[in-house]
Amino acid sequence: MQARMHKSWLAITILVMAMGTGVSAVTIDTPETWNSGTTEGWSGTDFWLNPYPVSNPGNCIEIAFNDRSTSVPGIAFVRADASASGGRFAGNYRAAGAQRAIFSLNCKSCLPAVAKLYFFSSRGGRYWSYNLATPEAGRWYQFSVPLVYAAGWSCANDPSAANFEYDLESVDWIGVLIEQNQTSPQAYDIDDFALATSAYDSDGDGMSDAAEERAGTNPFDPTSVFRLTMAGTETGILITWPSKAGISYDIWRT
After folding, report:
1. 126 with 79: CB under 8 angstroms?
2. Is 0.70 topped by the overall pTM?
3. pLDDT per residue over 54-66, tens digit each?
């Protein structure tokens, strides 16, 4: 990984990753919440693989950067080997039915310079990355990244849809990379990291994320869900539902 980093990077980065053997030990629809008060075996290193501290400030995992007091911050990673969390983020994603990587990110004091989702497959020797948009600091932001090449994944070594699918059958690690913004002190929290199928329900409102995306509701907000309400009126029945521009709705009766 170190040899693949461009020498012009002048910022601290984090990579939350899970290492694995490539076998289908993947656990789907089970988020990593860090509710145990520990890091669940996820540890940190700097760019040169020296230890870098991560913590659990309460139901999440966090990495914090001090003021570098220089114009050149360093680089750091957070990783988990196959034994961490039972190795449930490493293995054959296709055989397990994983369709998305879902997680929450809190940029506590400022936005990162760069945020990406990464996974690595030793089978193809490729590091795949997906750019993440972080709209504002000081609040949790939820991501749902399709594990589909056409969604915007890229790599430096022979990128193609065929190679992407090939590497998903033997994933060694997956995680979030964050590049520190300038040199000021800052911290980033990650929570609810999961490999999800189409049936996964992030907010527990009884409607799957996939169904909520089709309906135009927010899959991360339990108060935003597609449900009909009916009420009798003097002239008939009034039906209401949360609609969204650009989506067509059909009403059937029997």
Report:
1. no
2. yes
3. 999 999 999 888 8
Judge contact between 204 and 218, C-beta under 8 A.
Answer: no
pLDDT score recorded for residue 16: 55
Query: Among 188, 196, 201, which Cα is nearest to 76's?
Result: 188
| Interatomic CA distance for residues 193 and 206, integer angstroms | 19
Integer CA distances (angstroms), 182 to 5, 102, 112, 133, 191, in order: 18, 27, 9, 18, 24
Residue 248: Cβ-neighbour burial (10 angstroms; 0-12, 13-18, 19+): exposed
Judged against a pLDDT cut of 80, whether residue 21 lies above it is answered with no
* Contact by Cβ (8 Å): 153, 130: yes
Tokens of 202: 């992030």
The chain-wide mean pLDDT, for the chain, equals 82
User: In angstroms, rounded to a whole number, what is the distance separating the alpha carbons of residues 174 and 177?
Assistant: 10
Residue tagged 């506590």 (tokens)? 108
- CB contact burial 167-187 (16+ within 10 A = b; e otherwise): bbbbbbbbbbbbbbbebeebe
Name residue 45's amino acid. T
Task: Choose among 42, 148, 38: nearest CA to 99.
Answer: 148
What contacts 160, CB < 8 A, 6 or more positions away? 149
Q: Which single residue is written with the structure tokens 């998305």?
A: 100
Q: pLDDT over 70 for what percent of the chain?
A: 82
What integer pLDDT is reported at residue 27 of this predicted model?
A: 92
pLDDT for residue 163 is more than 50 = yes
Burial classification of residue 7, based on how many CB atoms lie within 10 Å of its CB (0-12 exposed, 13-18 middle, 19 or more buried): exposed
